Structures are given as C-alpha cells and as structure tokens.
Amino acid sequence: MSSSKKDGRQRSRRRNAGDRSSKGDTPRVPGPRSPGRGSRGELRKHLDERLRLLYQRAVVIEDELRKLDEDRFYRVCIFGSARIKPDTKAYNDVYELARYLSWEGIDVLTGGGPGLMEAANKGARLGREEKKTKSLSYGLSIQLEFEPEPNRHLDIKRHHHKFSSRLDDFIRLSHSVVCTPGGIGTLLEFFFVWQLIQVKHATPRPIVLLEKDFWSGLIDWMRAIPLGRGLVGDKDFNTIHIVDTPEEVFEIISAHHRSFRARSGSVEEPA
User: Where does residue 261 rank: exposed (0-12), middle (13-18), buried (19+ CB within 10 A)?
Assistant: First the structure.
C-alpha cells in the first residue's frame, strides 16, 4: 500500500473520531447541576406549596362538614374488641348500653366490625325500634383480613383505607366516647382521643371506661408512673370515668347529652 493512501486513511479515521466527539460520544466530566425548573430546590418548594394547599383545603372541608350537623345531632362513639363473641357478659353489656342510648335519641358510632362493635350497632337499632326515636347506627369500617365485611346492623357506613383517617372521623363525628374491653386497637383509640383532648385538638368530652377490672390497672399505672414523673397533669384525668355497668355509662352520657342540648338550644326532632 502506498504511503499516500495510508496517510489518507489515517486522516479519515481522525476526522471520524472528531465527528463522534462533537456529537457527544466522548464521556464528559460531570459538573455541578445548574439550578433550574427541575432542580432539587425547586421540587422541594413545589412539594411544600402543594402540601400547604392540601392542608388548607382539608381545613375548609372539615369546617363545612362540622357545620352540616353542628348542634343538631349527638353521637357517642363506642370502641371495643372485634374478638368478643355473642352470649358473653361484655357483649350483652354493650348491647344493652346501645339500646339505652338509642332510647334517648343518641346516635351510636362504632368501627362497624364484629364483636363489641356489632353488639353496639345491633343494640342501637333495637332501641330505636322500641322507642320510635330517630337515632342512627354508624359504622366506620376498615379493610382487615379478619374483618372482611362490616356488620349488618348499620344505617350509615363509611369505609376507610387508613387507620389515621378513620380515627379522625371518630373524633369529628362524636361528642362522647365509651371504651369497652379490647386489644391494641381499642387502646390506640382510647389514647388517641385522650391525647387530642389533652392538647385541645378535640373538644372536652367524657371518656367512659366500661369494666373496672379491665381498665383500673392501666389508669392506676398512668397515675403512678407518668403522673408521678410529671409527664402528664392531674387535670388530664378529669375526663376519665371508670364504671362497671351499662346503666352507669348511660347516666354519664345522658347527663352530657342534656348539657349539650342546653348549650346548643336544640331539641330532639319529633319521631
């Protein structure tokens, strides 16, 4: 091969290499990303603005929902275990309590599941039929493997996918709370309500604990340890009532109901 042809091919390869370099095939050394529309700072600012707007919208919606039935209806929220079966003392006590509440035209609100929730919703419906009141049986259900369907004693149902939104609805819709025997879920609900009242994120309301043998040890511990160390205040216990019978629960809730009616100036709608 002549030297002139060889030199021509080498020049051609150098030109092709230069073309590839100009088209970006040669790796570039990364440098600092210039701030712009897609920068991390801008994305954070956008997210912050979106969260602020969503929060403002949630506040407006909650305020509007409150106005829909403010001072018109009184509801008691009953928390308790889904595992307790019919024909037990705990089941029958909750069933009777809901009957009494419904006799007075008080709505009953539960998690809508089986066990003590079913007892409350079932008793509420029977009490309404017996006294011809307009009380309603509410259920705020949530999808769980062991609670595939809400109980069948509900007038109004709302399904939640998250426990957090469900807990918020329990507070928003209720005026008083009854905690009956239960496990971790019932304890969560009890402490959630108690804490919101403590920090004034919820209006003061009775929290009635049914069955002294079940609840007294927990409250004794709260007084001995957290209160003893100054982690809670003595006045935080003012809303707590521990009783043994559905009649005692009803007496406390009924007194609060009458006080609520007197403050609001509202009366029961005729049956």
Answer: middle
